[in-house]
Amino acid sequence: MRIPMIAGNWKMNTTVSEAIALVNEMRQPLDEIDGVDKVVCPPFVSLAAVYGAVKGSSVRLGAQNLYFKEKGAYTGEISPLMLADLCEIVIIGHSERRQFFDDTDEVVNNKIKAALKVGLKPILCVGEKLEDNEAGKTEEVVTGQLGSSLAGIDYSTSLIVAYEPIWAIGTGKAATSQQANDIIGLIRRNISQLYGGEAAGELRILYGGSVNGANATELMQQPEIDGALVGGASLKAEEFLSIVRQTSAIR
Q: Are 209 and 127 in contact (CB under 8 A)?
């Protein structure tokens, strides 16, 4: 059985002191919830502090991005080697990275290879724009992103995929549970074609896009959905705890 994962992507929010306060507020309640992998992904500047705050707990630590070179003259970038001693998980290919920082499928592919090389677990994000969705191109776009992003990469049990329809990120407009389940089912079929049925059966695929305490149960009840990549709601302790609790109760 695939263990569900609820990962909080804090994006460019929280100072170091705010990050510590938030994780300290959630740590004990999260420890009391079984059957769910619980992940927080603070900004780079807070990783070391949050690493210390969650040490010894059930809360796992993730980063929001990385650069695919291990070291060198790349001012302002963070290498996989720098992350490997601090966290287990890294988000790669988030739509905001693709939109604002020109993370193409080729760049995403290189980042996944770099993450896997040092033992990090990548969460590969895929998803379509509103115009693609309205034009009926969701399957085409998502299938293309998967194939290009995973080109030349052998299957790894460390891989996680997140379906994030861009039109639902930060808009308050989530995909319906059936829509999300259908596209995640499509992703699983694509993984089966790329890596075989066993890999497809064990791969965890998350949904992201305005997930909150009000819609978590309906989403997590869907058979193909293995958890959530949570944005704004992960910045509110009670909201994030509610999502994790609802997921635990279902699974």
A: yes
Query: Would you call 155 helix, strand, or coil by DSSP?
Result: coil
Maximal C-alpha separation, the chain: 48
Q: What are phi and psi of 183, to 5 degrees?
A: -75, -35
CB 62 within 8 A of CB 36: no
Record the pTM: 0.96
Question: Shortest CA distance to 149 belongs to which of 190, 93, 74?
Answer: 93
Residues that are catalytic: 94, 164
Residues 106, 98: Cα–Cα separation, whole Å: 11
Q: pLDDT per residue over 122-174, tens digit each?
A: 999 999 988 888 899 999 999 999 999 999 999 999 999 999 998 877 777 77
Task: Please report the domains of the chain, with CATH numbers, ordered by start residue.
Answer: 5-250 (3.20.20.70)
Ranges in the chain, pLDDT < 50: none
How remote is the C-alpha of 54 from its chain's centroid?
A: 19
Write down the pLDDT at residue 169: 75
Separation between Cα atoms, residue 93 and residue 7, nearest integer Å: 15
Strand ranges inside 87-213, DSSP E: 89-92, 121-126, 160-163, 204-207
